[in-house]
Amino acid sequence: MVEKVFAIIFASISIVLLLLSLQHLNEKGFLLNNAYIYASKEERKRIIKRPYYRQSGIVLMLVGTIFLLNAFNVYLKSIGLFIAVMGIIAFTVYYAINSTKKIESEKMSFISNIQYKQSSQSDIDNIYNLSKELIDKYEDVQNIDYDFVLKWTYKKIKSNIDQYTSIYLNETLIGYYHFHEENGMMELDDFYILDSYRNQGIGSIVLKKCIDESNLPIFLYVFIKNEKAIQLYKKFGFEIIENVKETRYIMRKN
Asked: Residue 254 has what DSSP assignment?
């Protein structure tokens, strides 16, 4: 009877851990990782979760397997299964330690490989095309003077190009931003990461850099339909303070 109870407990724990593992490998749910759990509220907003989700997913899967094998071994009492469990425990500890070192090493390497250079006249068309792409995708183009907006956008970029920053990864151009002072605050404008470099944490790294560069409040405009960008800004403490013509928000971080 006691053996049956222990087998049920071990099997139940195993199922929970394996389900949590699947959830983490799909980057969903609360992140069960020391790097996240023991981080401050502000640090949690800035952490790039993807590698930690993967690490926790694999560890949870290994620990779940350990409990599952123990559930079988309650009845079987197999030396072979016991040795297998010990081996998996050792590997789990080894993986947890080394994957943490690898994540930190890759994070530092990744950050150090991002360079920032002043944009030039040759970047004007690129920035304009990225801006036009957002306007076409998110703006209510039927209710604006479309040609005027595009001409104004091009003129704005051209006249301020010396204030724009080009973002490079290993000498490859991957994005732009315009971070400048406006009425006693800093404005983040025309912040773009090229398609093939999105969802890699680069936007978070660049945004954190901008935040760390100034003690002034920071504001920005973002299209209401651009939900991914809004979530990124909220993660870093930006709040919606105004709705502009039903298509854009002004967001601010004090």
From this structure: -
* C-beta separation of 201 from 212 below 8 A: no
Question: How many degrees, rounded to 5, is the angle at CA 204 between CA 179 and CA 102?
Answer: 140
What pLDDT is stored for residue 46 in this prediction? 66
The amino acid sitting at 20 is L
How many residues make up the chain in this entry?
A: 254
Token digits for 133? Answer: 């792409």
Cα atoms in the 13 Å half-sphere on the side-chain side of 48: 19
Cβ contacts of 62 within 8 Å, gap of 6 or more: 88, 91, 92, 95
Low-confidence ranges of the chain (pLDDT < 70): 42, 46
Structural domains for the chain: 2-112 (no CATH), 115-253 (3.40.630.30)
190, 154 contact by CB (below 8 A): no
Secondary structure in 3-state letters for 101-151: HHHHHHHHHHHHCEEEEECCHHHHHHHHHHHHHHHHHHCCHHHCCHHHHHH
Task: Output the pTM of the full model.
Answer: 0.63
